[in-house]
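Below is how a single chain appears once it has passed through the pipeline. First comes the sequence as given, then the structure the pipeline wrote out for it. We keep one example in the README because the format questions we get most often are answered faster by looking than by reading.
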Amino acid sequence: MDILQHNKSAWNGYVASARNEWTVPVTSEVIARARSGDWKIVLTPTVPVPRSWFPKLHRAKVLGLASGGGQQCPILAAAGADVTSLDNSPAQLAQDLLVADRDGLTLRTVEGDMGDLSVFQEETFDLIVHPVSNVFAPAIRTVWKEASRVLKKGGTLLAGFMNPVFLALDRELEAKGVVQFKHKIPYSDVTSLSASELQVFVGAGDALEFGHTLADQIGGQVDAGLAITGFYEDDWGNDKTPLSKYMNSFIATRAVKL
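Resulting structure:
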């Protein structure tokens, strides 16, 4: 299976159907506030990224890494940054451009794989913003290595990702409000599901997901030459999973290139 192509089609479909919150562009009012200095973004569903995690944004070179959808990148551009948005989905990139055109922002978009940033030279960016998206990548250590390569020395990587425990659950029981483990971590829709389960999943047009170990999520950043300097957890902000009664489903980190 061509995972990259499948997930591209899935996210294009999410945009067309407007059934995914990460495809909904921010309003002109949000952009106007950002221009005046009143702005915030999220890496995970609900908790805003602390302002202390950001470098000075005026003219900072920022990469939105798998961050399309008309949300983080336009806000940061309105706040004064020089923003490039890279995403696998052209429809998601079109949402960034929609906001940019609507509100007079300058924003560059690049269609590509988050694990292959060869289009960019080494030490190009001051800041990389990588919201929860590597759940759609079969391997993530290459994502961290490439992010580190294109960051300037002293540059900052802000990342959000799934706690792998969420993807270890039995989905059918979870839908009934029962928390029970079924899958080993690392998890993969491609190999962890049965052939019939995978067929149903693919037929529904959903993006394929992967549950990465914390050794790869956090240790992978460290091994790529990044120092973790900030950490928080978050949840869905709704009753999407009964796991919320016991623990958070998301992690956010701030890392600096040594």
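The two ends are 37 Å apart (CA to CA).

See the next section for the split statistics.
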